[in-house]
Amino acid sequence: MNMAVNIAGVELKNPITVASGTFGSGMEYSEFVDLNRLGAVTTKGVANIPWAGNPTPRIAETYGGMMNAIGLQNPGIEVFKNRDIPFLKKYDTKIIVNVCGKSEADYVDCVEKLGDCDVDLLEINVSCPNVKEGGIAFGQNPDALFGITKAVKAVAKQPVIMKLSPNVTDIAEMARAAEAAGADAVSLINTLTGMKIDVNRRTFAVANKTAGVSGPAIHPIAVRMVYQVANAIKLPIIGMGGVYDTESALEMMMAGATAVAVGTANFNNPYATVQIIDGIEAYMDKNAISDIHELIGCVK
Questions:
Q1: What are the DSSP calls for the chain, one per residue?
Q2: Is the pTM of this model over 0.70?
Q3: CATH number (domain holding residue 75)
């Protein structure tokens, strides 16, 4: 049975990774999950300098999911290079580094600093607010997305995955912009912007007022967007958004995703990733499928 998939020339032993920001760099989860089992570990977002993140409270539960406005808090690239990469290199899994920034120069600087690191893929988080453009995310304007993709590709030593924001009118247009600028792959969806009000305190549940909504409640939207993108571009796709069990992961693959990232599910079930890997294997066995590629994009 072949479970291996290829993302931009990098072979993953199986299609399951984790969504950035839900797994740290695997240190905490290594107590629950054998990281060797995962196709890849996708790290929490890293920037060229340390980010403090947003004020608290910055997490709230919602029906069928959660909201977060962590603000991409991270210790910066130097700590990441000295601490996180050596930890992950102990395991037989691919390393996808999620990169964030507040300006084009930030992204380029961080990507350049990762050039000499032994990591496999870079995932560029374009849902960061572009400070030079009044705070609109790079991923919400096709021209801005094209520009940031081109700038990153010009300096990147590893293949580049552009992580698309769902907070747009036409996700396929965004995917085409990333492809035209030279992206090697795309991942989607990032969180949807939402708001929750604490009726007892009569104020916002999250200090930032708005926050990113994730979890099973957004899954049907994510599947629809993955399907649209798969039919608009030729690049490999990492599908994510509310994946919590084998069935939801298989939906993503059948819609056109080559690999699947598990995010919010990790918080209430740290074993989710390995359970999904086992579940896909069992599904293939039961349905006499010898190669996982039979499932990728099989629904037209």
A1: -B--EEETTEEESSSEEE-TTSSTTSTTGGGTS-GGGSSEEEPPPB-SS-B--PPSP-EEEETTEEEE-----B--HHHIIIIIHHHHTTSSSEEEEEE--SSHHHHHHHHHHTTTS--SEEEEETTSB-GGGTT-BGGGSHHHHHHHHHHHHHH-SS-EEEE--S-SS-HHHHHHHHHHTT-SEEEE--PEEEE-EETTTTEESSTTSEEEEESGGGHHHHHHHHHHHHTT--S-EEEESS--SHHHHHHHHHHT-SEEEE-THHHH-TTHHHHHHHHHHHHHHHTT--BGGGTTT---
A2: yes
A3: 3.20.20.70
